[in-house]
Design a protein that fits this description.
With 279 residues, this protein is mostly beta strands. Helix content is 14%, strand content 38%. The strands form 3 sheets. Strands 2, 3, 4, 5, 6, 7, 8, 9 and 10 form a 9-stranded mixed sheet that branches. Strands 12-13-14-11-16-19-18-17 form an 8-stranded mixed sheet, with helices on one face. Strands 1-15 form a two-stranded parallel sheet. It is globular and about 45 Å long.
Length: 279
């Protein structure tokens, strides 16, 4: 089954987040050293920032639906707290100069060495959206567009970095028109193994013996590839009933043929896509 998801078309001024020279209004992001999970390995998903053209709407939407709390650490950046744990951030894109058409969850993948990782995929398609730069508190980063249009951030591991609380961000899935090509590209980029998953045209990225993400055939028509973070909720049916009341839209509702009806895909009020799954 194919779905329409035209609102996934967006443009981002991501270079402004990557420590480029001459940018004075770049938000300052928190360090990864204060996270509560395990040690970081190359290929792990280590951080999540929502880049949005309407930060007030995002704060209300996510605050009401997930009971998240927010702290403004500096102009244009809001730290996200869930039950007192720092789990991500929201970037007010209006301070970046180039405002995106829609919101985007920018997922960050750990790398032992960003420049070596870029060299491994230089002939495999895709392109950097920014120069390699240094973010205060975070270290060396670069934003990339993969060969099929999905956007991701690569973050160089520092010795004190820790993973976020595993109880919040429970999975990551890339929806793309070319799953095998994308899987091989991300395997080369992050240095993890690629393994066939149970579904047709579906692959897992495997770190050691642990799967860290799935790459699947996109169910959406006329939409670029996109990484979808999956968040845990107590009751997916109750969650989707509340989405539209808070300005969001359910694009794939719970279905018995999809993870036994435990998962749904949602757009926030500015078009940022994410999924939720019952615990």
């Amino acid at each position: 089954m194919k779905f329409s998801l035209h609102s996934l078309a967006f443009t981002l001024g991501l270079a402004l987040l990557a420590g480029c020279a001459g940018v004075s209004n770049r938000p300052v992001v928190p360090s990864l050293s204060g996270q509560s999970g395990g040690s970081v390995r190359a290929g792990d998903f280590v951080w999540h920032d929502l880049i949005t053209p309407d930060a007030p709407a995002a704060l209300t939407f996510y605050g009401d639906l997930f009971s998240w709390e927010f702290r403004s650490s500096n102009e244009g950046y809001f730290e996200i707290y869930s039950d007192g744990e720092l789990i991500g951030g929201i970037v007010d894109a209006t301070i970046l100069g180039t405002v995106p058409e829609t919101a985007l969850w920018l997922n960050s993948i750990a790398s032992q060495d960003v420049r070596i990782a870029l060299d491994r995929i230089k002939d495999a398609g895709g392109k950097p959206l920014s120069a390699v730069g240094v973010l205060p508190n975070r270290g060396t980063v670069v934003q990339l567009e993969d060969p099929n249009g999905a956007i991701v951030q690569l973050v160089q591991i520092q010795s004190k970095d820790r993973l976020p609380d595993p109880g919040i961000w429970i999975w990551h899935e890339l929806l793309t028109e070319n799953p095998e090509e994308s899987a091989l590209w991300y395997g080369a980029l992050s240095g993890v193994e690629v393994a066939a998953a149970l579904g047709e045209e579906q692959f897992n990225l495997v770190n050691g013996n642990t799967p860290v993400a799935t790459i699947s055939q996109s169910p959406f028509e006329e939409a670029r590839s996109v990484w979808v973070p999956v968040l845990a909720v107590e009751d997916v049916d109750d969650f989707v009933r509340r989405v539209s009341k808070h300005g969001g839209r359910v694009v794939i509702g719970p279905d018995s043929e999809l993870s036994d009806g435990t998962i749904a895909v949602v757009l926030d009020p500015s078009g940022g896509v994410f999924a939720v799954q019952s615990k």
